């Protein structure tokens, strides 16, 4: 038998342990290859702004997948080496040198790595047509994405992952330590000592997690608070598994009514050892799951918020300009109105228009100026939109605020600062959940508007289209006209544009396309994270399987039946899968709630529950598969 055949036989013999690791690696290669197929697709390269956006997003995703794959493979290899200490001890007795052990492990890792790369690329090739169809549908590309031979994608994927496995296989020589043979042989049979934990570190964990919740939920989410909460949350989560969990399990054991009942005596006795032994793995799984759930939740929240913003915009097209008194600005406003109306007339779109003046007005005892319009300006808007007109007294005002789940400040009284520096008190007689021009606006009497010390003044020409008023999302015509007008009248597309044209339909479509790219990227990255966490958990169960078999065989001799074994084993596997998931779900809800406050997302409960629910279903499937295999192995040794 040659040395290579010996390494190959080792891989075959340990295939049950390597299966999850191999499948996770192959899946990461497949997703990396699929993204590369999209990056190098000629139609994506030539599809303008959306194509550039897609390519940029995919390239970022490639970096994320590669870095995560490197860390995942490195962690998996180091974990495999720890389990094989007894095997290394036997080989050392039989005459193997450290160099030969290093060479054997290097060959094994390269065999699995090469097989993962070939399998991943081959699977990606078989599914590439389906992936291109899905990508075209998500990105809403009318012409679709035809199949092509992705030689560059094959070259990039093969080279990247072969280098990855080569580097990690070389690093394994640093992970094999020069232990004495007797230590290697006894590594699997050493009795476990009672887990110890520090009270101070347990308190640090609880305090860090509490401080994280306080910063995210009750403080402004600036860069400092975000970074601080990230650090504290990471520290708190790590010490929760390594320290705090040991004390909590001890408290449960002291409660004899709970502990000395049914199979709890079995699984709870082992729980403190398993949590302590698997603390790093629990920590990694929790962080990975929380990041994936949060990313998916944010993508869903963007989609819902984009739709709500569109529905809150009363006018499909608005053209705004500052310093309307200047000759250049007057001509620009007239020219813009002519272009908008000509475009709408050519498309036979029925519209109504209104031109109003607004201003940012400073109020006494408030730091932020508020956009305001006069009563007469509002009544012209109301006539176009079929709203009820207003008739205000000199000291009255009405506040129209943008619908939002956030706690929008809606004051009862305000004092305007006049041009003379005096105060002009106003009573807010009504507050309506209706945005004007997509933002909150205060409607004040004409006399108050004239007297107010105004900041920047703005003239807005707004166009209402009755036939689009009931649409929940913009139709193709609205998007097309909006983009056409933006190219003529928006400074981003036309440097000579003086004012600013806003198209709610074009804006909605742009954000939707960006979100579609995020969905396409996030969907597969989240899948990689999910499968990798399942791989971690499966491997940990396999690592402890022989010891668990010995324990259950011993207990079965004193009366444990199959039903009790299945119950205790199910709880043990369930805790391994769902404790990190539950912690990650709680962290996801807290983070998404904080993001809602900072980014004015419409509603975070539905995205949160959708993301957590999707990962729960995946986790449940993994749990059922692993549980059935685990219980089958335990059943073999029952007396």
Oligomeric grouping of the chains: single chain
Structural class: alpha+beta
Share of β-strand residues: 5-15%
Total DSSP helices: 20
Strand neighbour order, sheet with most strands: 5-6-4-7-3-2-8-1-9
Secondary-structure element string: HHHHHHHHHHHHHEHEEHEEEEHEHEHHH
Structural account:
This protein has 639 residues and is α+β, with helices and mostly antiparallel strands. Among the domains are: 190 residues, no CATH class; 200 residues, no CATH class. The protein is built from 20 helices and 9 strands. The chain has a 9-stranded mixed β-sheet with strand order 5-6-4-7-3-2-8-1-9. Helix 2 runs antiparallel to helix 4, helix 6 runs antiparallel to helix 7 and helix 13 packs antiparallel against helix 18. The longest helix is centred in the C-terminal third of the chain and has 53 residues. It is found in: Cell membrane. One of its GO terms (biological process) is transmembrane transport. It is a multi-pass membrane protein.
């Amino acid at each position: 038998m040659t040395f290579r055949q010996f390494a190959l036989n080792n891989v075959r013999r340990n295939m049950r342990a390597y299966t999850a690791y191999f499948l996770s690696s192959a899946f990461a290669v497949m997703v990396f290859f699929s993204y590369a197929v999209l990056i190098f697709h000629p139609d994506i390269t030539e599809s303008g702004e959306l194509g550039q956006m897609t390519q940029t997003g995919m390239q970022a995703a490639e970096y994320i997948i590669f870095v995560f794959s490197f860390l995942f493979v490195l962690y998996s290899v180091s974990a495999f080496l720890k389990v094989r200490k007894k095997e290394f001890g036997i080989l050392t007795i039989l005459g193997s040198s450290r160099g030969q052990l290093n060479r054997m492990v290097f060959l094994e890792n390269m065999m699995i790595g090469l097989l993962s790369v070939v399998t991943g690329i081959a699977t990606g090739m078989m599914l590439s047509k389906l992936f291109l169809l899905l990508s075209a549908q998500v990105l809403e590309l009318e012409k679709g994405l035809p199949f092509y031979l992705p030689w560059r994608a094959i070259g990039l994927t093969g080279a990247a992952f072969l280098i990855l496995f080569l580097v990690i296989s070389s690093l394994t020589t640093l992970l094999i330590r020069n232990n004495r043979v007797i230590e290697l042989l006894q590594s699997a049979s050493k009795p476990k000592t009672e887990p110890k934990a520090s009270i101070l570190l347990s308190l640090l964990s609880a305090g860090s997690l509490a401080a994280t919740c306080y910063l995210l939920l009750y403080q402004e989410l600036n860069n400092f608070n975000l970074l601080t909460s990230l650090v504290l949350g990471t520290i708190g989560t790590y010490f929760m598994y390594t320290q705090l969990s040991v004390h909590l399990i001890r408290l449960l054991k002291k409660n004899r009514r709970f502990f000395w009942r049914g199979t709890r005596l079995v699984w709870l006795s082992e729980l403190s050892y398993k949590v302590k032994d698997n603390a790093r793995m629990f920590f990694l799984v929790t962080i990975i799951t929380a990041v994936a759930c949060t990313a998916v939740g944010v993508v869903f929240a963007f989609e819902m918020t984009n739709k709500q913003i569109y529905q809150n915009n009363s006018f499909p097209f608005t053209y705004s300009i500052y310093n309307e008194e200047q000759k250049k600005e007057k001509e620009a406003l007239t020219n813009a109105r002519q272009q908008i109306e000509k475009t709408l007339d050519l498309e036979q779109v029925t519209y109504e228009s209104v031109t109003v003046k607004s201003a940012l007005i400073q109020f006494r005892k408030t730091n932020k100026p508020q956009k305001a319009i006069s009563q007469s300006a509002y009544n012209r808007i109301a006539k176009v939109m079929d709203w009820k007109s207003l008739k205000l007294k000199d000291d009255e005002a009405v506040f129209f605020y943008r619908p939002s789940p956030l706690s929008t400040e809606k004051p009862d009284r305000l004092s305007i600062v006049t041009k003379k520096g005096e105060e002009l008190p106003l009573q807010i007689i009504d507050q309506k959940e209706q945005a004007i021009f997509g933002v909150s606006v205060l409607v004040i009497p004409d006399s108050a508007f004239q007297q107010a010390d105004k900041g920047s003044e703005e003239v807005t020409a707004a166009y209402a289209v009755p036939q689009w008023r009931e649409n929940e999302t913009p139709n193709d015509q609205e998007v097309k006209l909006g983009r056409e007008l933006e190219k003529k009248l928006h400074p981003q597309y036309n440097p000579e544009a003086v004012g600013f044209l806003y198209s709610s339909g074009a804006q909605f479509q742009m954000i939707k396309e960006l979100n579609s790219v995020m969905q396409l990227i996030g969907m597969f990255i989240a899948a990689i994270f999910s499968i990798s966490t399942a791989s971690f958990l499966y491997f940990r169960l396999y690592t402890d399987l022989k010891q668990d078999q010995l324990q259950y065989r011993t207990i079965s001799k004193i009366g444990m039946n199959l039903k009790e074994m299945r119950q205790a084993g199910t709880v043990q596997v369930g805790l391994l899968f769902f404790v990190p998931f539950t912690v990650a779900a709680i962290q996801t809800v807290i983070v998404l709630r904080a993001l809602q406050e900072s980014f004015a997302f419409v509603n975070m409960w539905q995205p949160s529950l959708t993301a957590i629910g999707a990962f729960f279903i995946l986790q449940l499937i993994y749990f059922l598969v692993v549980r059935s295999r685990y219980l089958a192995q335990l059943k073999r040794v029952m007396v």
